[in-house]
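re: ur question from yesterday

yeah so i grabbed the chain u mentioned. its 185 aa long if i counted rite. heres the sequnce exactly as i have it in my notes:
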Amino acid sequence: MAKPAPDVRAAEDEYSRGLLDFTADAVALDAARRVAAVRLDQAQALCKAFSEKEVEARARDAEFARVERYEAARAQADDARRALAEMYPQLAGDLVSLLRVAAEAELAVKAADADLPRNAIPLANVEGNDGANFHDRAIEAHGALNDPEAQRQAGSEAQRRAALVLSTVGCGWNGKQVFMPRPEE
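ran it thru and got these structure tokens back, copy pasting raw so excuse formatting
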């Protein structure tokens, strides 16, 4: 049990001494002792109530922060969805067209380089001379799609990405092998 507060202890001591002094008003001393004990109980109850209110306030603040973060993320996601819906189809179409033009030019360059005119230098890759052109990337994707060990290691997500790369350069994948559609005549 907790020790009584000094004013309660003093009131109890005064009450105890007053019991032996028959001239003192024992009833008044007892009342003072009880008042001090009630005030101590009130102070403790008030401290407990403030502590509980502080916990509730912190919980409300944390929930408010979560709600703000959630609403900001929702607004950002909505903005991104709108931007994707408005811009992505055009951008994706433009990118596919650009990749198809580059892939067709790369095929033309390879064909011309395979049968060079006399004294002609081989043409540069469409994407530059770093050796990482569409054809090389398509061959890498082809290997990833058709190699069982690569499939096992990379998993279906890598296969999906490789099929997407191939589709942007006009190739396809039937789930088993890469194919190049015949040109339309």
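noticed a couple things. The beta strands are 172-173, 178-179. also The helical segments are 6-20, 26-114, 134-146, 148-168.
anyway ttyl
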